[in-house]
Amino acid sequence: MRLRLKFAWLLALALASGAAPALAHGVTVEHRQVSSVELQARFDTDEPMANAQVLVYAPGNPTDVWQQGTTDDQGRFSFTPDSSQPGTWEIMVRQAGHGVLTTIPVADSTSGGEPTATPVTVADTGANSLISPSAALSPVQRGITIGSVIWGFIGTALFFARGKH
Amino acid sequence: MQRNLFKAFTVSALGCLVLGVLTSCGSEGPTVTAPETNETASAEGETGTLLIRANGEDFVRQGFTTKDGWEITFDNLYVSLADITAAQTDPPFDPEAGTELQSKAEVKVEEAQVIDLAEGDDSAEPIMVSEVEAPAGRFNALAWRMVPAESGPSEGYSIWMQGTATKEGETVPFTVKVDEELAFTCGDFVGDERKGILTAGDEADMEATFHFDHLFGDGGAPAEDGINTGALGFDPLAALAENGEVDVDSAGLQAGLSEEDYQTFLSILPSLGHVGEGHCEEVTLTTS
């Protein structure tokens, strides 16, 4: 028996407050946009890790829990990393004697402030994962591919245009 | 003219093929880079002491009830450990990502050792395996092999389980001797505390954890729980008893168990090794 944990996470742009700034009886509501991380933990059987303990550790401080909570009944949990603490954030999810530790790199706030997905740190990007494997082409590769396809079309057109002997 | 056009097409088609292959090769999955030069503990750098322990958990120390109702207690549970390696990795090694462990620094326990996970009383601490001088830093990966012991009480076997099983008034002494070789690579410890954080001049724990409930199941968990649906239980072993006692090795298991039960047994072995609650990748038996 192998209770492997599938662990996936995605990034979401969330609003700390959905309401526009408003005034009512001297109360001020402000909002700002923040980048949050939503993760989902589940067993290899695809059963969600419902109500599992979640411990979040900020970069450079692996001993003090930065935030803790529990997953919902679908094994989901979200949090908003402090973008002023760039580096590798660690998230530990534990339930019934089984646990998983995953890492999420968060970029410096001066370089955009949004966490960057690094699939290598994701435990298992299976078919039901919320994150897709890293299969994107580089700009150079994409250009070569497009050029090859166009050149192929030209060659094909010339072939059919050559007529019969 | 037409012949030239046809040549042009042929060249273009070949060009497409070559370029297509090149680009598809460039988009393959995770790239494994060459290992960096490993550092070892030296007198020049700041070092501390890693205390490497092995833990069979309460299932082994206190006994437990199997999924099929047998009360199990262990007299001895020997595991033969070799090539124990603690490593600092950045980014942290993820054993379930299918990538190779790349260490920034690592230390090894040179000698193979046989550890009795059942040593001590019910509240015994995890068994000390070795103390190793190591460079200060964050040790967040652990690897080890389980090989047939070269000497000692479990000579010839990587795992030796000896104890007593009791059910409905029947008591069956058992000795199960496993000679399959296993190798585990694991990431960071997952548990109540963080381990492997070594500061200069100080000590830090690391732990190889063994989940033998995966083999026998857990009577305290629901029957449909994954810990039980994938477990062998003790009934198939009890059926191998002769003169009221089970004494069987790997060859005897293969010969005596049903094909389904034997395959279940083999499939469980790679899941025995953990780091606390964190899972490991088994890289020997699963690839043989």
Nearest-integer average pLDDT of chain B: 87
Largest beta-sheet details of chain A? 4 strands, antiparallel
Order of helices and strands of chain B: HEHEEEEEEEEEEEEHHHEHHEE
Distance between the termini of chain A: 69 Å
Q: Strand pairing plus helix content of chain B: what structural class?
A: alpha+beta
For the record, the count of structural domains of chain B works out to 1
CATH topology of the largest domain in chain A: Immunoglobulin-like
CATH architecture of the largest domain in chain A: Sandwich
Q: Largest beta sheet of chain B, briefly?
A: 14 strands, mixed
Number of strands of chain A: 9
Shape descriptor of chain B:
elongated
Please state the average pLDDT score of chain A. Answer: 70
Strand content of chain B: 25-35%
Please characterize this protein's 3D structure.
The complex is a heterodimer of chains A (165) and B (288). Chain A is built from 1 helix and 9 strands. With 165 residues, chain A is mainly β. Chain A has 2 domains: 5-134, Immunoglobulin-like, CATH 2.60.40.10; 136-165. In chain A, strands 6-5-8-9 form a 4-stranded antiparallel β-sheet, with no helix packed on it. In chain A, strands 1-4-7 form a 3-stranded antiparallel β-sheet, with no helix packed on it. Chain A is elongated and about 75 Å long. Chain B has one domain. Chain B has 288 residues and is of the alpha+beta class. Chain B is 21% helix and 35% strand. The chains are: A mainly beta (165), B alpha+beta (288). Chains A and B meet through strand 8, strand 9 and helix 1 of A and helix 1 and helix 4 of B. Chain B: Keywords: Signal. Chain B: Residues 1-26 form the signal peptide. Chain B: It comes from Phormidesmis priestleyi Ana.
Topology at a glance:
The complex is a heterodimer of chains A (165) and B (288).
Chain A: E1 5-15, E2 22-24, E3 27-29, E4 33-43, E5 53-57, E6 67-70, E7 76-79, E8 87-95, E9 98-106, H1 139-161
Antiparallel strand pairs in A: 1-4, 2-3, 4-7, 5-6, 5-8, 8-9
Chain B: H1 2-26, E1 47-55, H2 57-62, E2 64-65, E3 71-88, E4 105-109, E5 113-116, E6 127-135, E7 137-138, E8 141-146, E9 159-167, E10 170-178, E11 182-186, E12 197-198, E13 203-210, H3 213-216, H4 226-229, H5 235-238, E14 246-249, H6 250-256, H7 259-268, E15 273-275, E16 278-282
Parallel strand pairs in B: 1-13, 10-14
Antiparallel strand pairs in B: 1-6, 2-3, 3-4, 3-5, 3-8, 3-9, 7-12, 8-11, 9-10, 11-16, 13-15, 15-16
Signal peptide (chain B): 1-26
Keywords (chain B): Signal
Protein name (chain B): DUF4382 domain-containing protein
